[in-house]
Amino acid sequence: MQELFARAAALLLGNESDAGRDHDAELVLQALEYGVKSSDQIDSETANRARLLLAASRFSRVFELAAPDAPGLISFGAQFDPALADPLHDGSPMVGVSGVGLTLQEAFQGCIGEGIEYLSQLQAGTDLLLKPGIDDWTAKLGPKALELVAVLSERSLQPQRVYSWCRATRVTDGGEVLLPADICLRRPPAHRDFAPPYPLSIGSAAGPSRDAAALHGLLELIERDAASLWWRGGQLPRSIPVRHEAGRVAEELLQRLRHGAAAQRRTWLLDITTDIGVPCVAAVSCRSDGSGFAFGLAARPALEAAVRSAIVEMCQLELADAVVATKRNERGDGALNAQDRIHLQRAAVDAGQCKLLQPVAEHAAHLPLPATEASVIFGLIVERLEKLGIETFCIDLTRGRFAVPVIRVIAPGLQLEPSEIVTARLQDAMARTGGGATYTGGVALI
C-alpha cells in the first residue's frame, strides 16, 4: 500500500510516464475522487492532496474500519513511527490515528491529516528553543497567560533546570511572545521541563491552508471549553429550535449513517454553546435502555455545520467503543489501557436518566459569523475572545518534510477538556451549579 500511495501521488501530479498506465494507482485516485492534472495545471488543492498521499506512503499501515452502529460511516485508521518526524523520537512507540466521513475522500484526508498534525507537533532537532530570563517574557503576556505559566512552573520535573521556550505570535497585534516549549511541542520525555497537563492534540490542526488550520485549531479549543463547562461545570445544555435547519440536517444525516444497522440507537442533540457564542453541539446516542452512552462534540461557525460534525464524531466514538468491547471480550480486562477504561466508564452512564444529557427548553444565543473566509471568521472569533479577556496565540508547526500547513492555537483563558488545570471559567461554573459530578458521579467524559 505504501508504494501504491506514492505512485498515486505521482500520477495525480502528472509525473507518471504515458508509456504504461498504472491502473492500481488510477483506482486509488478514482476512489478518493482525485482528478489527475497535467504538470502545468497543478493547483493548491491538488498539491495538498498529493502531499497527503505521500505522507500515507510513509505510514506503517493504513486501513479501513466498519462501524456496526453506523454502516454509512467510512472510517480509516493508520499507524506510523514518530521517528518519521525526527531521529529525536527513535524508539518511541507506534502512534495510531483515525479519520471518518461520509466519503472515502473525507475519511482518508481526516486520517492522514491527523497523522501529519501529530508528526508536525513533534520536536525536531532543528527547532530553535530559547532559555530567556524571566524579565524577557513577563511584560509581553496578559494575565491569563501569566496565570498559565505560573501553574505550569509548579509542575516542573527538575526545578533547578531553566525552562525552554518557543516563539509564538499574539494574534491581536502580531507581537512575538514566548511560551513554555512543553505546551507548544511534543518533546521526548527526557527533554521535558514538565508533563503537559492536557493532551497536546487540543488546539492543533492541519489544513489545506494556514488560515483553515488556525480556524480549526481555535474551534477545537472553544469546543473543549464548552464541553468542560457542561460536563464538569454542570451547565445544563439547551435544545435546538424545532424548525431550525440544523434539525433537518441531523435527520437526513442520521438516516444515511444508520441505514442498515442491526440495532438502532437513540440519538439526540444538545446545544452547549457558552458565553463566547460560537455554536457548540454535543450529539448523544445510547441503546434503548440508556446504556452505551456515546457522544460527539463540535464547534463551528454555523449551527448546522456543528450538528453535522458532532454527529459524525459521535459515530466515530461508537466505533471506538465497539473496538474496546471486542478487545475486552477477546483478551480480557488485563488487555485494556487507561483510555479503554475511560470508554467503559463513560459508556456505563445511564444516558436516559443523566440530567446533563437532557436539553432544557431554552435556546442559546449564537455569535453571528456571516463571513465564509477562514481568516475573517478566525479574526471575528479572536475579537470576541478578546472582549472576554482571553488572549489568543498561534505557533506555525508546518514542517517542510510534509509541506501541509499545521498551526497550534493557544488561548490560556479557555478551559480545556480533559485537563489537570482548572481555570476561573470552570471554577465559576461549578460555583454556580454545584458541578457536573452531581449528575455524572465524576465519570470522565474524555
Automatic annotation (TrEMBL):
This is YcaO domain-containing protein. Coiled coil: none annotated. Residues 99-446 form the YcaO domain. InterPro entries: YcaO-like_dom (IPR003776).
